[in-house]
Amino acid sequence: MAGSANLNVMMKTARKAGRALLKDFTEVENLQVSAKGPGDFVSRADRQAEKTIRDELMAARPTYGFLGEEDGEKPGEDPTRRWIVDPLDGTTNFLHGLPHWAVSIALEHKGQIVAGVIYDPVKDEMFHAEKGGGAWLNESRLRVSGRRTMIECIFATGLPFGGRSDLPATLQDLARLMPVCAGVRRFGAAALDLAYVAAGRYDGFWERGLHAWDIAAGVVIVREAGGFVEPLTEGADILESGALVCANEPIFPSFAKIIRG
């Protein structure tokens, strides 16, 4: 599948950062048994990955803005375009030696996400999409699942931790959803949750308390795979609110109604 010059830059950059993180991940597994532990090491790996991505993207498109998890917002000369980057989505998994994490890069143009890349280095899975060009996993076209009844569906979410204020709402969601579906999964990487909806591995996903860099790439990938993505609160902005619900077309109305209460 031939992509645009921008998409090719994004994929090349994600692979470069992913290869370095994969080496770091091997080291994290060794650090699990050390007295110091892997926390400081992972923070350095995360920051270095973002620097690698920023350097590569800005070398290719020096006028674009940049929004990253580590360094925040850096406006560009071109106010209509910016990169939105999560260098390591699933940091807690990475920290614990769990092989489920990804690099996420999105391109925004005039307030719309027009391209997205989510790269899982452990499995060498590159999810990518451009607006109007479909969604892909490596060289294979992606489509959301075709399931039509809730009781057959598996959904994904994130479970709030550390006393976060959205825990009660999420527990209420689960109480309404779990009796009417085939299961709920919590794998700990929102970007991959969205990618898996696009691939038909999950039938839907919802979560609160996310950031733009967690979800920007996944939103365009799901939509290009034929899925519906909406803010959890109708009329809100997905990237600003950090709360969304998505699913295939047949399931979306029932699923969204349950989650929105």
Q: Largest beta sheet: what is the strand line-up?
A: 2-1-3-4-5-6-7-8
CATH architecture designation of the largest domain? 2-Layer Sandwich
Tell me, what is the CATH class of the largest domain?
Answer: Alpha Beta
Helix content: 25-40%
- What is the end-to-end distance? 41 Å
Give me the count of strands: 13
Largest sheet: 8 strands, mixed
Low-confidence stretches: none
List keywords for this structure.
261 residues; alpha+beta; Fructose-1,6-Bisphosphatase, Chain A, domain 1; D-Maltodextrin-Binding Protein, domain 2; 2 domains; 8 helices; 24% strand
Structure description:
This protein has 261 residues and is of the alpha+beta class. 38% of the residues lie in helices and 24% in strands. It contains eight helices and 13 strands. It has an eight-stranded mixed beta sheet, with helices on both faces. Strands 10-9-11-13-12 form a five-stranded mixed beta sheet, with helices on both faces.
State the gist of this model:
The protein is of the alpha+beta class.
List the SSEs and their pairings:
Layout: H1 5-31, H2 39-60, E1 65-68, E2 72-74, E3 81-89, H3 91-95, E4 102-109, E5 112-120, E6 125-130, E7 135-137, E8 140-141, E9 154-157, H4 167-177, E10 183-185, H5 190-198, E11 204-207, H6 212-224, E12 228-231, H7 238-241, E13 244-247, H8 252-260
